[in-house]
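Recall from the previous lesson that a structure prediction takes nothing but the amino acid sequence as input. Here we apply that procedure to Protein GrpE from Rossellomorea marisflavi. The sequence below is the only information supplied.
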Amino acid sequence: MSEETKNDQELNEEQPKVDNEETVEEVFAEEPQEEQATDELSELQAKLDESENRYLRLRADFDNFRRRINAENEAKEKYRSQALITELLPALDNFERALNIEADNDQTKTLLQGMEMVHRSLIEALKKEGVEAIDAVGQEFDPHMHQAVMQTEDEAYGSNVVVEEFQKGYKLKDRVIRPSMVKVNQ
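The prediction returns the following tokens.
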């Protein structure tokens, strides 16, 4: 045998014999693989889209969380003294009641002057923190600012107008910390 024939036989022996029918089946078998690859690609694209949406939602949630925390911190800073002021208001009321006493001698007058100075200092310190007294008498009744404890019929005042104030109300910046207790005209 010639060398070429030997080489051809070796090649034929190494390669399995395939008939034409198997080759056609292999060709048709590749088409489902392409469909499968397309399906896998679309499935991966759907997962990618879902992951991107989840990422965007999480980022938006985090941004909202950060804004909410910043707003809460600003509110804490703005109203940090509210608890102390609320505790001081009864003392301020007592100061004002004490200052309404009629002084009959020099010693009492001197004591009242000292109390007025302390009262003024206390009012100024509260103003620096943003505390304001709520105007009541002569104002139209506002349920957010006033607490009606009595009603009256007085021709000198219009309807739904505050006639008398029993206890002063106070605001801290834009928040009512104690409404005024008032008598309202019907």
